[in-house]
Design brief:
The protein has 256 residues and is α/β, with parallel strands linked by helices. The protein is built from 9 helices and 7 strands, in the order αβαβαβαβαβααβααβ. It has a single domain, classed as 3-Layer(aba) Sandwich (Rossmann fold). Strands 3-2-1-4-5-6-7 form a 7-stranded parallel β-sheet, with helices on both faces. α2 packs parallel to α3. It is globular, with a radius of gyration of 17 Å. The structure holds NADP nicotinamide-adenine-dinucleotide phosphate.
């Protein structure tokens, strides 16, 4: 039995349609999997080769029995996200859940950071969250229901040397989350942010185990993507119906 169906009924989100960005690998794939395990249909929105995301969608559909489709889209493009959301609505009929997960890093100290390094990271991490939220919430508002979960980071709360661009983008994601929560609460839409510390994905594979920050984690290890996904599913579950505008750290105690 998978982790999600140990906690929730596997039909908990049956009939709901979820859009997860950056979902062909890493945390996004774990979130897509966890949502599918409790019955949600999933649209995987990704930048990579259609063959890769198509395969991820196929595997997920075969494992869970829900409908999973892959869409190629650069979330930093307003026009591409608009067209993609339109296509998803035409394929699925409605969108109840949006998980803004697509993100990148281009680390470097401020003195060496180029304008391109700054604007690309902010454009994808923060701009992508704005673009997808802007387009998806139109449909959510009509239905007067929606759950939005944004991937921030502890770097957006505490800052991090070498990550001026990334920290700024994630602090921005927290600002978007709280403002959207206030604007759209009356339409039955909640918006919350998840702030992970270190999670075992491609994004962190080059950070050595003896890196000082890793050594400061009270729980003594980095997170598995499935642990972050479990929190995302909770925020999309009926149990989280009164939580909005919240930022939840999931970092093994790193930033407390
Ligand atoms: P990852 O393994 O590097 O995966 C990132 C995903 O985002 C990939 O699927 C990637 O697609 C997609 N993506 C990148 N640029 C895109 C674009 N322009 N348009 C659409 N999709 C795009 O990253 P991860 O570790 O799973 O991180 C997921 C989220 O959690 C990110 O927002 C990250 O900032 C946040 N986070 C991660 C950690 C961590 O320790 N891993 C900690 C805190 C926060 P391709 O496959 O096409 O590249």
């Amino acid at each position: 039995m998978d982790m999600m169906t140990k906690i929730y009924d596997k039909t908990m989100l049956a009939g709901q349609n979820a859009v997860v960005t950056g979902a062909s690998r890493g945390i996004g794939y774990a979130v897509a999997t966890a949502l599918a395990e409790v019955g949600a249909n999933v649209a995987i929105v990704d930048y990579c080769d259609e063959e890769i995301s198509g395969k991820a969608a196929e595997t997920l559909a075969a494992e869970t029995g829900v409908t999973v489709k892959a869409y190629r889209c650069d979330v930093s493009s307003y026009e591409e996200t608009e067209a993609t959301v339109k296509q998803i609505l035409s394929d699925f009929g409605s969108i109840e859940i949006l998980v803004n997960n697509a993100g990148i890093t281009k680390d470097g100290l401020l003195a060496q950071m180029t304008e391109e390094q700054f604007s690309r990271v902010v454009g994808i991490n923060l701009g992508g969250t704005f673009n997808m939220t802007r387009h998806v919430t139109r449909a959510m508002m009509r239905k007067r229901y929606g759950r939005i979960v944004n991937l921030a980071s502890v770097a957006g709360i505490t800052g991090n040397a070498g990550q001026v661009n990334y920290s700024a983008s994630k602090a921005g994601v927290i600002g978007v989350t709280k403002s959207v929560a206030k604007e759209l609460a009356s339409r039955g839409i909640t918006a919350n942010a998840i702030a992970p510390g270190f999670v075992a994905t491609d994004m962190t594979k080059d950070i050595p185990d003896d890196a000082p920050l890793k050594q400061q984690i009270p729980l003594g290890r980095i997170a598995e993507p499935a642990e972050v996904a479990a929190l995302a599913v909770f925020l999309c579950s009926p149990a989280a119906s009164y939580i909005t505008g919240e930022v939840i750290r999931i970092d093994g105690g790193l930033a407390m």
